[in-house]
Design goal:
The protein is mainly beta. It contains no helices and eleven strands.
């Protein structure tokens, strides 16, 4: 099982970026897929999650700015990030939870991918 995140980069304050995470090795269409981030010197934090049926959950800090979506046919999850701020700078990782409902805790996720770095300049 592999989860491959991509789409990170350097963006200016107020800009937008879309991250993708493709799963391979098995299908996760019925499971929850989520995004977490880890800023320099901090722990891993929940960003957003989406169930196989499309139910979503967001961290308060990104509500209204970030949108999570998925393409079950491609076993891919996306994170559209708008109005980016310097405090959004972090390594973003995708993960899969064997659950029917969105999960927000790191401990509830079973599979993890490598992260992709997002840097927002002020």
């Amino acid at each position: 099982v592999q989860l491959q995140a991509s789409g990170g980069g350097l963006v200016q304050f107020g800009g937008s970026l879309t991250l993708s995470c493709a799963a391979s090795g098995r299908t996760f269409s019925s499971y929850v897929m989520g995004w977490f981030r880890q800023a320099p010197g901090k722990g891993r934090a929940f960003v957003a999650a989406i169930s196989g049926a499309g139910s979503t959950a967001y961290a308060d800090s990104v509500k209204g700015r970030f949108t999570i979506s998925r393409d079950n046919a491609k076993d891919t999850v996306y994170l559209q990030m708008n109005t980016l701020k310097p405090e959004d700078t972090a390594v973003y990782s995708c993960a899969v939870a064997r659950s029917l409902y969105p999960r927000v805790s790191v401990n509830e996720y079973d599979y993890w991918g490598q992260g992709t770095l997002v840097t927002v300049s002020s």
